[in-house]
Amino acid sequence: MLTGAEVKSVKNGHISLKGSFVTMHDGELYLTNANISPYPFAKTAETYNPTRSRKLLVRKSEISSLIGKLQTKGLTLVPLRVYTKKRLIKLEFALAQGKKKFDKRENIAKRESKRRMERFIKNN
User: Fold this and answer.
1) Distance of CA 115 to the CA centre of its chain
2) With contact defined as beta carbons under 8 Å apart, do 82 and 90 qualify?
3) C-alpha span between 21 and 94 (Å, rounded)
4) What is the per-residue pLDDT across 54-112, written as a single tens digit (0 to 9) for each?
5) In a designed cystine with 16, which of 4, 35, 106, 124 is the match (CB 3.0 to 4.6 A)?
């Protein structure tokens, strides 16, 4: 559920899903930590919170199928993309499992070695 100014801002592409996730409270889904910047031409209140939780309009049958999957340890609903379909704003999300600690260390080591090689090539 978005306000009118948020809808216009999203349709202009001013939304960031980085670090956001979908949570469940009282049998309803909420988009948390998604940053929707204020629409510049709207008179928004000074108390506008760009990262507030926003209720997602999802069918009860879809929610009930997700409840069992979310109960599984380590699974989270992660938003993938936002798109418009006619006059509606749709959110595509997926069930994902977080990385393990050793996976993160692997990626950091690869990134650092790549940086070292690029520096070496640049200096020589």
Assistant:
1) 28
2) yes
3) 10
4) 999 989 888 888 887 777 777 888 899 999 898 889 989 888 887 777 777 888 889 99
5) 35
- Tell me, rounded to whole angstroms, the distance of Cα 78 from its chain centroid: 6
DSSP E strand boundaries for 5-87: 15-16, 21-25, 28-32, 35-36, 54-55, 75-85
Q: How many angstroms separate the CA atoms of 72 and 63, rounded?
A: 15
Name the strands in the sheet holding 28-32, side by side, starting at the edge strand that comes first in the sequence.
Answer: 54-55, 28-32, 21-25, 75-85, 88-97
H or E, element range at 97: strand 88-97
How many Cα neighbours within 13 Å face the side chain of 113?
6
Domains annotated for the chain, with CATH where assigned, are 4-98 (2.40.280.10)
